[in-house]
Amino acid sequence: MNAPALDRARPYMAALSDELTRAGAIRTRPWAEAFANVPRHVFVPQWFEQETNDKGITVWREHRATTAEDTLAAVYRDQTLVTALDPATAEQVDETAWTGVPTSSSTLPSLMAGMLEDLNAEDGHRVLEIGTGTGYNAALLCARLGEHLVHSVDIDPALVEAAQQRLTDVGCTPQLIPGDGTQGYPSGDTFDRIIATCSVPAIPQAWIDQSKPGTILVADVALGIEGGLVRLAVDEQQRALGHFTITAGRFMAARTDARTYAPLPRPERAPETATRPTVVTAENIRGNYPFRLLLAFHLPEAEFVYHVDDITGTMAIQLQQPDGSWARAPLTGDNTGTVTYGGDAGLWQQAETAWRWWNDVGRPSQDRFGYVREADGSAHVWYIPDGTRWSLPRSGAGRA
Questions:
Q1: Which whole number is the average pLDDT over 132-154?
Q2: Domain residue spans in the chain?
Q3: Average pLDDT over residues 59-87
Q4: How far apart are CA 398 and CA 10, in angstroms?
């Protein structure tokens, strides 16, 4: 790595570490030192930012890293940087802009820091990272634990190759390998800590198999309407037991194809049935992350989407089920206190039941909910103060 370039970046590296410490994302000195000494710009040589171009099209605009001050300031922001687009959906619209769906990113640094702190890694711990991505998180783990203890897997061989080169450039060589991270690390070894920087609908069996009693898992569980980061400890019975963390997740979903996401089947939507008043509005749902997570417990097979009316242009929040049932509430206009639905009327009634319960118990945050993945693969969540419980489908149903 070019020493003068690194020297120019050091003030930005230190500033990012200080910012994350002041925000409470970094809580211990070892991780503060790691963020202050690992150059993010090496791992993000290019990225895409969303904007509306002069034709009114929403595009991903490409940016390239340099050691100029404005570029360094951009790279060392506490912001997720999209680094790859799905080639099946990407279409170039001008010299430096594309449409498409993101498939890889350099994660929000405060989110990374919160997850690494929740991992509670100590000297001598062997760590498995699911989702190598750019390699930045692996570099942070190496800085904290040593390269010989860090293992990482990613579905995309090209990403792994690029990450390996960047890691070599900064002087570390962890054990990287391409493969389906939901199947664990190919060697079959066990690990003291497992961290996933992609979302999964349920904790995979392979991660449990490669754990030992006391192994800590930090992962993003996507439940359809919403998902959340869980911190789980594996016990002697191969149960993974813990709770949702105060840090929210929303990672890109784990995929089985190296470059693209498989298209989701879409059922035919039920015809419109009725419109009626409701006690829970679209803004109630959009504005309260813990409530959306609770709603996912109630409706684990449902999906959350934004809907735009073809005629009026009104934007609404829509819940929809695999059987074609749907219900939507407008975000703007004169009818925000109403819901329109088709198919099963009970879909939005479930949302109203969850809203009343959440308000009755004092609007608890997500870290008041426990999560357990049983040895047989089943999972459930519960409200920690009183044990109110919701069972989740064994497959982790939902559309992550």
A1: 97
A2: 3-14+22-106, 108-244, 272-360
A3: 87
A4: 43
- The pLDDT of 267-275, averaged and rounded, is 89
Question: Which CATH superfamily does the domain covering 108-244 fall into?
Answer: Vaccinia Virus protein VP39 (3.40.50.150)
CA proximity to 191, closest of 135, 130, 137, 237: 130
Q: What is the pLDDT of residue 394?
A: 67
Positive/negative CA dihedral, 175, 127, 374, 300:
negative
Alpha helix stretches (DSSP H) within 276-375 = 282-286, 289-298, 346-360
DSSP code at position 148: G
Contact between residue 99 and residue 90 where contact means Cβ atoms under 8 Å apart: yes
pLDDT for position 101: 84
DSSP code at position 296? H
Q: Looking at residue 264, what is its pLDDT?
A: 60
Question: Do the domains 108-244 and 272-360 sit in the same CATH topology, yes or no?
Answer: no
CA distance 381 to 394: 13
Select from 282, 297, 277, 276 the least CA-distant residue to 358. Answer: 297
User: Chain-wide mean pLDDT for the chain?
Assistant: 90
In the DSSP assignment, the letter for residue 388 is: -
Of 102, 108, 100, 107, the C-alpha closest to 130 is 107
Angle (CA) 307-309-315 rounded to 5° is 50
Asked if 180 and 256 count as a contact pair (C-beta separation under 8 A), the reply is yes
Of 218, 206, 41, 72, whose CA–CA distance to 139 is shortest? 41
**Residue 152 bridge partners (DSSP):** 129, 176
pLDDT at 151: 98
Q: How much is the pTM?
A: 0.89
pLDDT of 397 over the 60 cut? no
Residue 17, pLDDT > 80, answer yes
CATH class of 272-360: alpha beta
Residue 144 has pLDDT above 70, yes or no: yes
Q: For residues 76, 87, 133 and 167, what is the CA-based torsion angle, rounded to 10 degrees?
A: -80
For residues 36 and 14, is the Cβ–Cβ distance under 8 A? Answer: yes
40: phi then psi, degrees, rounded to nearest 5: -60, -35
SS (H, E, C) 5-73: HHHHHHHHHHHHHHHHHHCCCCCCHHHHHHHHHCCHHHHCCEEEEEEECCCCCEEEEEEECCCCHHHHH
